[in-house]
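User: Teach me something about this protein's shape.
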Amino acid sequence: IEAGTLLVERAPMTASPPRTHFLRTLGIAGWDALDPVFLAAVATESPLLLVGPHGSAKTMVLNRLAETLGLEHRHYNASLLSFDDLVGFPVPENGRVVYLQTPATVWEAESVLVDEVSRCRPEVQNKLFPLVHEKVVQGLPLPRLRHRWAAMNPPSSLDGADAGDPVYSGAEPLDVALADRFAFVVTVPSLAELSQDDQRRVLRPSTWSADEARPTVTRLVEATRAALATNAPAEAAAATEYAMLLAAQLARAGHPLSTRRAAQVVKNVLAVRAAARALGAADDPEAAYLVAARASTPAAAWGRPVAYEK
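Assistant: First, the predicted structure itself:
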């Protein structure tokens, strides 16, 4: 007590860790809200499909991600893709069929990007099912393959196009079953949807280095995996209840989820929550669940995106 005043020694305030940005590390501005989804997809090695307008950096971000992670990467343009491009040309050898491999075949790949997947010929598209979902081609496992990514323009809306929406000739709605094989289906923003500050960041000339990005990306991926292993068992029940409620509400809104998709929602919610923790985001389960939910409904790939209000 000094001069009638009680002096209380306060404990020093502990600052929360700074928020880390995953996609900015890859030189992508304006996509901060998608950070936990991308990080969750990479950390869990889950199939990822990007839907967005031309020139919105879909291909660039995935190629940069592969370069940063140091992966043996294959980038295919689905509009030109034949199945022989994936597996090589079959030739007889000692009474059996083998495939002549080239630097472009998929057998030794660690990551695969199928660009313009909605322009793929139906017979080739059907053969992508096991590649995306099971890491299998022609019934043979691909033991080195870890990441399966794809990108596409928005297909024509089955509910009718809004005035001013671009129309992509040849970009068909993706087969419903194929779209359902992608764990995360992410709609990426156009330039007009970014803030003015983010537009300036996008348009300003800049340099980017995979070597500089690699330590941060590697640290975030490892931290997400650790957070998932630590917290998922305790949070699985809540994530399951959330997925059941979400499926019921979406069904009422005309967007039913398959059983496989509802189970994927549970995994996605847990992974996105872990990624948010690794990024140092505010501890807000509801926000993380909503981000995961929006990236877990594949309807945008077949022309019926779920409106945000729904």
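Now, about its shape. The mean pLDDT is 88. Residues 62 and 113 are 7 Å apart (CA to CA). If you'd like, I can walk through any region in more detail.
User: That's plenty for now, thanks!
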